[in-house]
Amino acid sequence: MKIAIDAMGGDRAPAEIVKGALAAAREWPDTELVLVGVPEAIEAHLDGSRPSNLSIHPASEKIEADDEPVRAVRRKKDASMVVAGRLVREGGADAMLSAGNTGALMTTGLLVVGRMDGIERPALAPVLPTLDNVGVLALDLGANMDAKPEHLAQYAVMGSIYREKVHGIARPRVGLLNVGTEPGKGSELTKAAFELLEKAPIDFVGNVESRDVMQRNCDVLVCDGFAGNILLKTMEGTAGAMMKELKSAFTSSLLTKLAAAVLMPGLKGLKNKMDYAQYGGAPLLGLNGLVVKCHGSSDAESVKNAVRQARIALQARLIPTVAAEIKGKEVLS
């Protein structure tokens, strides 16, 4: 399998992206990794012992974090993100990943890679951490800020297929993110989506409140990109603040330092459970190729884990499986 990596996208690019790609190439020698970007900028961060399964594909431009997505993708034809998308579309790579501008990646997916038949809007679908370590597949968490009820119904079907076929969960439970569990709660969007989800070919368990997500009261969480991204950032911020406070408390005195030494294994396990870097990246479901979005501030570890996620998705034939299943189901549109 071959995975194209946007080396120029992200807050820490290209240094951390290249470092993560190097680690991934050494970890999985059966996977060919292609760093897409300015060759001189990439080579400056290689350690001189480049693995044979790591190569560079030139791209002279990059899409900035503050670029307007559609304009940037259309005008910057040789941007690293766009070139990586073109490799996927033309068969030069089986998947691509990027930590760059989310809106631009979404646009690249739509305009360059192409949309899956039967799906109007792709969705960003990361796995959120849960207390039982199984996780909740949540979509959409930021690809589309203005969704329609029909889009949420399509997210539910795609997410259900993903959980069943890739994660092996039989009859995954699908919940709708809302401000209350009772039917009829929420905005006009969630009320209309609730009615569609009741008719969809899924195991719909009703509305779910954000406070219960980590208890895994559903396997697939459906929401619009605006609410979903707020949920994601709130979870990340809370986890970061909690770990910061724990570190402060356990280093305040000799006694607490001794206590920390005893509790360290458990604290590391908690940190890993709450750390987005452990999950690496999230697929944009609904495209004709595998496109994985990494966190904008991804470090080398996160990039390596994103490659791992892409490998798992490719081995499970995620995209062709979802496409085939979608054709066999009545997806509301």
UniProtKB/TrEMBL annotation:
Entry's localization field: Cytoplasm
Domain of life of the organism encoding this protein: Bacteria
Keywords from the UniProt entry: Acyltransferase, Cytoplasm, Lipid biosynthesis, Lipid metabolism, Phospholipid biosynthesis, Phospholipid metabolism, Transferase
General function of this protein: Catalyzes the reversible formation of acyl-phosphate (acyl-PO(4)) from acyl-[acyl-carrier-protein] (acyl-ACP). This enzyme utilizes acyl-ACP as fatty acyl donor, but not acyl-CoA.
Pathway: Lipid metabolism; phospholipid metabolism
Gene Ontology cellular-component terms listed: cytoplasm
Protein source organism: Paenibacillus albicereus
Encoding gene, per UniProt annotation: plsX
EC code: 2.3.1.274
Any Pfam family matching the protein: FA_synthesis
HAMAP family per record: PlsX
SUPFAM superfamilies named among the record's database cross-references: Isocitrate/Isopropylmalate dehydrogenase-like
Protein family membership: Belongs to the PlsX family.
Keyword Transferase set for record: yes
GO molecular-function terms, A-Z: phosphate:acyl-[acyl carrier protein] acyltransferase activity
Record's protein name: Phosphate acyltransferase
Recorded catalytic activity of this chain's protein: a fatty acyl-[ACP] + phosphate = an acyl phosphate + holo-[ACP]
GO biological-process terms attached to the record: fatty acid biosynthetic process; phospholipid biosynthetic process
UniProt subunit comment: Homodimer. Probably interacts with PlsY.
